[in-house]
């Protein structure tokens, strides 16, 4: 399977703990996106990478959130000092530079903060 | 502010009939629109797109219509099949931008056999 993969699929953590999610995009895709989806809503843009450069961050991405894509391949999203409001599905997507809007999504990581 | 709106949370259609899903947007800078389909426990899957220079794009059973003056687009599925039952998201973006997509809230389509 050469689609976008995300790990873990589910994460339950206690408030105040740090969590890290991983995304492996489709190998030839140079663009990588993180979105967050809460119940009854569509995905909301968080941040975007072109190769290893993080080129845009949403105002939704507070200082507790950090994302990296160190070698322009996989990406990690870390949330520090988690809050209950961080509970959501975190989706990763990738695309080719020539067709940036046709994004291929992974299955997501569902985070529950208790 | 919700820049892309799908005002119908759900839609139920009989197999073989037409399904029409609607989407409205407010940002006049949007010039590229997409529909994604999402099954439970999976990420959204790209379905069809349309540029603002067109008013219609067709791909098999799926057709997207764009009315720029009304800031409205719709997805027609003909004929509808039970396998089309899913959540459908409308998305919009500004071309030449980062590729950031702005999504609507989604419409759950149920196609009854």
Description of the structure:
With 114 residues, chain A is an all-beta fold. Helices cover 0% and strands 49% of the residues of chain A. In chain A, the strands form two sheets. In chain A, strands 2, 4, 5, 6, 9, 10 and 11 form a seven-stranded mixed β-sheet that branches. In chain A, a hairpin with a 2-residue loop joins strand 5 (44-50) and strand 6. In chain B, strands 2, 4, 5, 9, 10 and 11 form a six-stranded mixed β-sheet that branches. In chain B, strands 1-3-8-7-6 form a five-stranded antiparallel β-sheet, with no helix packed on it. Chain B is globular and about 40 Å long. The relative contact order of chain B is 0.34. The model of chain B has no long low-confidence stretch (mean pLDDT 94). At the A-B interface, strand 4, strand 5, strand 9 and strand 10 of A face strand 4, strand 5, strand 9 and strand 10 of B.
Spans of chain B of at least 5 consecutive residues whose pLDDT stays below 50 are none
Mean pLDDT of chain A: 93
- What is the tally of helical segments of chain B? 0
Largest sheet of chain A: 7 strands, mixed
Number of separate strands of chain B: 11
Tell me the strand percentage band of chain B: over 45%
Shape of chain A: globular
Amino-to-carboxy terminus distance of chain A: 33 Å
Order of helices and strands of chain A: EEEEEEEEEEE
The count of β-strands of chain A is 11
Biggest interface, chains and residues, is: A-B, 26 and 26 residues
Helix-strand blueprint:
The complex is a heterodimer of chains A (114) and B (113).
Chain A: E1 5-7, E2 10-13, E3 19-24, E4 31-37, E5 44-50, E6 53-57, E7 65-68, E8 75-79, E9 88-95, E10 104-105, E11 109-113
Parallel strand pairs in A: 2-11
Antiparallel strand pairs in A: 1-3, 3-8, 4-5, 4-9, 5-6, 7-8, 9-10, 9-11
Chain B: E1 4-5, E2 10-14, E3 19-25, E4 32-38, E5 45-51, E6 56-59, E7 62-67, E8 72-77, E9 86-93, E10 102-103, E11 107-112
Parallel strand pairs in B: 2-11
Antiparallel strand pairs in B: 1-3, 3-8, 4-5, 4-9, 6-7, 7-8, 9-10, 9-11
